[in-house]
Write the structure tokens for this entry.
Amino acid sequence: MPQNFRLVALGIVTVSLVCSSSFSQPQKSPVHAEGHPWWQDAVFYEVYPRSFADSNGDGIGDLKGIESKLDYLQQLGVDAIWITPCYPSPQVDFGYDVSDYENIDPMYGTLADFDHLVEAAKKRHIRIIMDFVINHTSDRHPWFLDSKSSRTSAHRDWYIWRDGQAGGQPPNNWLSGFGGSAWKFDPNSGQYYYHYFATAQPDLNWRNPAVEKAMFDVTRFWYMHGVSGFRLDAVDLLFEDPKLRDNPIRPGKDEMGDPNMLNRYNDKLPENHQVLRRLRSVADESGAVLLGETYTDSAAELKEYYGAHNDEIQLPMDFMFCTVDQLSAPAFRKQIALAEATGGWPTYVIGNHDMARSYVRYGDGKHNDQIAKLMAAMYLTLRGTPVMYYGEEIGMENNDPKRKADVKDPMGITGWPKYKGRDGERTPMQWNDSAHAGFTTGTPWLPVPLSAQTHNVEREWNDRNSILQFYRQLLLLHHRNPALRDGDYVALDQDDPHVLAYLRRYKKQAVLVILNMSGTAQQVSFDLSPQGFFSAKAKTILTTSTLAPSGPLDHIALEPFAVYIAQVSP
Ligand code: NOJ
């Protein structure tokens, strides 16, 4: 993962469960018996539309492709799919440069295709979440074209325009996350505009009420089209210091080769929260959920995103969890405790389209499949809402470009060779072992790795020990087990350097989760009487181990990287 980009600033046992179908439209669905709104019980699944399924052979995924895979997603057990931007866009940043917020890019289909997808998903109890690129537009958006046309244009103040400093210098020292100055000079009007990301992604001026109104109306438009919420892109960058004070520079360089800057004056300004509260009010009118791309450095910062009265983002994604870039029981224990300490409902992710795939981040090169199951067992049994990344459930690996000429991601082009960009984690979904993994009949926009021969949906569907089948079992448990749905998180054996263990305790029952995060065999024992489980016995419900027997909790032998999940009764 790049260090400067704020993205990082960062089975063996079969469970006898039946498929869950716990929500029904309309969108203002009731809370369930324990008082949870639907999104707390849901498992979200991120779809990168360029790479999911191509229905027309042009090498790029599309909405009809996604629709053709809804049965798979339903059988996998996901409740909502978050589709990264599929709006009209010049595709400089693959959709994160939007030129029309209220339409679908022809490469992905039409608005009618989108409506059809929403209906088809609804029939399968799957909700659709759109990506709201709230901080910036494309430089081809009509608002920006007008803004740029003259200093007096109607949309001039919809973006951040400033005079430069003497000597042809930009207004201040702020840097773009995509490399270089965050200011671009426009010779036509003689001023600079601000862009946190690529030059083709000018930042909107959220101090202008007209911007807020227009953007809030965008969300209303999509609620009318049946979406159940939004993932908020780059949501902590909405405001900039009005005085444009220079940011402090720290020693060293970032991964883009720029000075190592602390974004004190253009990141996480308090004004963000006022907008979030108002955006939440609009969402509440439709019973919608907001997921946040919320990069935080502390539990206190993460807590702020829920809002002082739980009136901001319902699901701020906890990226501190992703900063644990090693398989370490103490490190994950600490992060989970921090998320719990916010008092909010945690939202866990282990991968997305901006970071190397979890399969390679945590894998040791020899036991990657086991480790992929271990990671899944962790984040799908914690208290909170998990957000999966497409392909994670089959153990997709990164396929980074080998030559600069092959790089598509603008960050990779600037960051090469130190940072190869994000193409590697965005490769086509691996459906089967045919040409291009069954993603397209044409030439895929990114190449499929060789591992598609072994790690693909078709093959893993038919292998009861596969990562995919393990995910399916976990998702069933996640939905059906009362302790996993509603139980508290209780950390166990907090000094164990190798084994992460916890209870999910609900009324008189609990689920015990034991994860051997080491490559060596471990032996553990638990006394659960402090938790109210005297002479407790465990009954295995899901394990990757051939050793772990059901029974007393005083000798549990764990193979390297073993997962042991058991129901505990008093
Ligand atoms: C965050 C998105 O996840 C990333 O892919 C994109 O490049 C930036 N925001 C800019 O929109």
Remarks:
- Confidence is low (pLDDT under 50) at residues 1-30.
- The domain at 488-569 is CATH 2.60.40.1180 (Immunoglobulin-like).
